[in-house]
Amino acid sequence: MNTLEALFKPRSIAVVGASRQPGKIGYEILRNLKEYGYGGRIYPVNPQAKEILGLKAYPSISSIPDSVDMVVVSVPAHMVPDVIEEAGRKGVKVAVVISSGFKEIGRHDLEEEIVLRARKYGMRILGPNIFGVVYTPARINASFGPKDVIPGHIAFITQSGALGIALMGMTIVEKIGVSTIISIGNKSDIDDADLLEYLAGDEATKVILIYLEGVKDGKRFIEVARKVSTSKPVIVIKAGKTEVGAKAVASHTGSLAGNVLIYSTVFKQTGILEARSVEEAFDWARTFSYSPEYRDGDLVVVTNGGGAGVLVTDTLSMNGVQLSPPPETLVNALKPKLPGFASLGNPIDVTGMISNEGYVDAVMSALLDDKVGIVLAVYCQTAVTDPTIIAGELIKRIKELGGLPKPLIASFIGGEEVYWAIQKLNNAGIPAFPMPERAASSVAALINYSRIRKRLLRNA
To answer: For a surface tag, which of 134, 164, 206, 308 has the fewest beta carbons within 10 Å of its beta carbon?
Structure first.
C-alpha cells in the first residue's frame, strides 16, 4: 500500500489525542470514524484512558500491538513532532495532523520539523491546521465535521477548515453526494497536485472541486492539473482575488495568494474551470456528477416562459455559449403538438398555456432528437400545470429509457411545489436548480469542459 493509498483506504487508523469528553475534537473524530461505519481497526490513543466509545484505548502509538496505516493527530502543536517520530518508527504511512499553531501563526520552524521527521520514515503528512478527511467508499469520516456525509462522485479539496466544515453540512442539506472531502490547511507536505494525481485514478470520483488560496509548487500543479483535466473536470474557487483578500489569505493559512491574473491564465492553460462563487462551483460539480458526458450536438432550450428563456440565453452567452437554431427534425416533430403562437426558435417557447403532458413531451422530444447533444429545460410554475407531476413524469420517462442518454439540466421556478419538484429531480440524478441563471451556467460548464478537453487532447 502506497502512502496516499493509506490516506483513502487504510486498514487501520489510530487517533492520537482521542478524548472521552463529547465536544472535544479528539472525541468527535473518533465518534465519526466509528459511527460512519469504517470497517478497519480503530485505535484511540490516550494515556489517561482504558476505553473510549467502547474501543480499547492505548497509552501510545508504539503500544498498539498491530500495524497502523494512518494516524490522526489532535494534540497541542508542541507535542506533534514527538507523535510524528513515534508514528514513523511504528511504520505509519500517513499522518493527518489536525492540530493548529504552525505556519499560520508564524511557526514555520515547527512545521518544518514535523515534515523532516516524517520524511525520515517515508511517511506523508496531510495538514497541519485541518479538520480531517472523508472518503465515502471506505466509510471513513476522520474529521470533526458533520457525520452523515452522503456518498457520491464529487471530490472536494479545501484549504479552509471552517468553510470546509460548513460546506460539508451544506452537501448534506442539499443532498449532494461526495466521494471525498479533504482538508489540506497549511499543505506542509501533501498538496493539491498530490491529491489531483491520486483522484485522477479514483473510480468513485467523477469531478474534482478545489477551494484554493495558493499553491506551493506552481510548476508541478500546472503539469498535474493539465493531465487530470483530460480525464476529469477540475473546478476551482480561487480565494484572494483582491489585494485585501490576498492579505487575508496570508494570515489564514500562511499561503501566498499570488497574482490573480496569473492564476486565471494558468487555469485556462491547464483546463481548470474557474467558478465565480461557492454556489456556482457546487452547481457545476453537481451537474458533472449527475450527467452523462457531453460529447457533441446542439444545445436546445425548452421553456414555457419567454422571459426565463431570455435570461438563460444571456447567461449562456456570458459564459461563451451561443444558441443555434434547433434541428429541423425537432421543429417538425413539435410543430403539430404546440399552439400556433409557440416560438420554435431556440429557446423553444412552448408558452405558459402548455399542459403538464405537453411540456414533458417537448422536453423528451428534444432529448431524443439525434442532432441534440444537451437539453436545458426551463419551467415556470403556472395555474394550468403541476411541477411535481412534470418532475415525476420526466423521471418516469427517463427511467424507461434506461437513464439519461445525454445531459438534461432543469430549472424550475416557482413556489413550494417547485421546491419539491426540484428535490425529486435531483434525487433521481437530474440536476435541477431554482434559478434559470444557475442552470444555464451549469450547462455552459459542461459544454466548455468538452471544448477544453478536446483542445488538451489535441495538444497532448
So the answer is: 206
Rounded CA gap, 257 and 247, in Å?
Answer: 8
CATH label of the domain that carries residue 115: 3.40.50.720
C-alpha cell at 316: 449562456
Q: Quick one: 196 and 90 in the same domain?
A: no
Does the pLDDT of residue 362 top 70, yes or no? yes
Judged by DSSP in three states, 108 sits in helix
Q: Which of 248, 274, 290 is the last residue in one of the domains?
A: 290
Checking 336-344 for CB contacts under 8 A at 24+ apart, the result is: 337/361, 337/362, 338/362, 343/306
Check whether the bond before 347 is cis (ω within 30° of 0).
yes
Radius of gyration for the chain, computed over Cα atoms and rounded to the nearest angstrom? 25
Q: Are residues 254 and 403 in the same domain?
A: no
Q: What is the pTM of this model?
A: 0.93
pLDDT value for 249: 46
Residue 347 and residue 284: Cα distance in Å, rounded?
A: 21
Residue 348's contacts (CB-CB under 8 Å, 6 or more residues apart) are: 300, 301, 302, 303, 326, 330, 334, 342, 362, 366
Flag whether 347 is in a domain.
yes
Give the full edge-to-edge strand order of the sheet including 70-73.
41-45, 12-16, 70-73, 94-97, 124-126
Bridge partner residues of 126 (DSSP): 96
Please state, in angstroms and rounded to a whole number, the distance separating the CA atoms of residues 262 and 155.
Answer: 25
CATH number for the domain that contains residue 165: 3.40.50.261
Domain count within the chain: 3
Tell me the C-alpha distance between 411 and 431, whole Å. 9
Q: Would 77 be classed as within a structural domain? A: yes
pLDDT score of 1 more than 80: no
Q: Are the CB atoms for 423 and 449 separated by under 8 Å?
A: no
Over residues 49-92, the pLDDT tens digits come to: 999 999 999 999 999 999 999 999 999 999 999 999 999 999 99
Using the predicted structure, report yes or no on whether residue 337 has a pLDDT greater than 70. Answer: yes
Q: Where are the alpha helices (DSSP H) in 45-160?
A: 80-90, 108-120
Residue 91 dihedral angles phi and psi, to the nearest 5° = 95, 15
Distant-in-sequence contacts of 348-353, Cβ < 8 A, 24+ apart: 348/300, 348/301, 348/302, 348/303, 349/303, 349/304, 349/305, 349/306, 349/309, 350/302, 350/303, 350/304, 351/304, 352/304, 352/305, 352/380, 352/382, 352/384, 353/384
Q: Is the pLDDT of residue 263 over 90?
A: no
For residue 257, what pLDDT is reported? 46
Query: pLDDT (tens digit, 9 = 90+) per residue, 196-210?
Result: 999 999 999 999 999
Domain C-terminal end among 82, 99, 129: 129
